[in-house]
Design goal:
With 299 residues, the chain is α/β, with parallel strands linked by helices. It is 42% helix and 15% strand.
């Protein structure tokens, strides 16, 4: 790991010298390796350096690789102390960084949840989207976007849907889990340009995820006006609330199933949460986020 980190740092410095760059500030996305390299480059050039901590919350826990290895054997904390500040995608990541010893209490950490391109992810006419995609017009559709893995909850959603009568599903993604419940309208990879179309063809979005930094898939669903069913764990606290979602214990398949059925059977609740989703998404766009981050950096 140390060899890899050194190579990454030297490659960046070589590029800066070769291209005769004179940066005012250096930024690295994710701690390993770009954030660590940014800290070293900033020290070398005598300029401010920032790291974005967008890691999955599970990877910031003690005992998890590669972070546990990096903290124990590669002096990550000492390197990260060279930063001028950290951009955290969630309040939960900020807590994990401090509580698990990545940085000292004095390190400035700003919280900036991820943003969405609202020119692409926006409310569209549901009937039109269903017609284009060849989906039935008058059925209730659940959408899922993400890796087909246990961490993302594709298996638990699949099991929950087996007990949901008259509910259809869209699984966007790929992975080791193979959804096989009845009434799957689509299963597989989708071009990023088409994701919004599939989301707008759905009635709700369900992601029983066990760990996130700040989930882009959830924010995209909110921007498309979808009620969300997802984890009650703290990584969702900045983006989900009782006005836009139903939050559940994602290990409990029965809770997932009951939440889906509750929304299926209660159109008024569905509409209320859809309106809340759109309101939430108004502040979660990439332009607002970029402006706030630049202000945080003093630019």
């Amino acid at each position: 790991m140390r060899f890899s980190m050194d190579n990454h740092f030297h490659s960046v410095m070589t590029t800066i010298r070769k291209e005769k760059l004179i940066p005012d500030l250096v930024y690295g996305h994710f701690i390993y390796q770009c954030g660590l390299t940014a800290a070293r480059v900033g020290e070398k050039l005598g300029i401010p350096a920032y790291c974005a901590c967008g890691e999955n919350s599970l990877r910031l826990e003690k005992g998890k690789a590669p972070y546990d290895t990096g903290m124990k054997y590669c002096n990550w904390k000492k390197t990260l102390e060279k930063l001028s500040g950290i951009i955290s995608v969630s309040s939960n990541n900020k807590v994990l960084l401090r509580d698990n010893g990545f940085v000292n209490e004095t390190m400035p950490i700003g919280v900036f949840p991820n943003g969405v391109d609202d020119t692409k992810f926006r409310r569209m006419d549901k009937k039109t989207c269903r017609k284009v995609l060849g989906f039935p017009e008058d059925v209730f559709i659940v959408a899922f976007t993400g890796a087909f893995t246990t961490n993302k909850g594709a298996d638990r959603l699949n099991e929950a849907l087996k007990s949901c009568e008259n509910v259809y599903a869209i699984f966007m993604g790929q992975g080791i889990v193979d959804p096989d419940c009845e009434r799957i309208l689509f299963k597989g990879r989708v071009s990023n340009n088409d994701v919004a179309k599939y989301l707008n063809a759905a009635d709700i979005f369900v992601l029983p995820t066990k760990g996130e930094g700040c989930c882009n898939a959830i924010i995209e669903a909110l921007a498309c006006g979808l009620p969300v069913v997802s984890s009650d764990l703290p990584f969702n606290d900045d983006i989900l609330n009782d006005q836009n979602s139903i939050r559940i214990d994602v290990d409990d398949v029965k809770q997932i199933q009951e939440s889906i059925c509750r929304l299926y059977e209660n159109p008024k609740l569905c509409e209320k949460l859809a309106k809340g989703a759109k309101r939430s998404a108004e502040s979660l766009n990439i332009r607002t986020r970029a402006k706030r981050i630049l202000e945080y950096m003093g630019l």
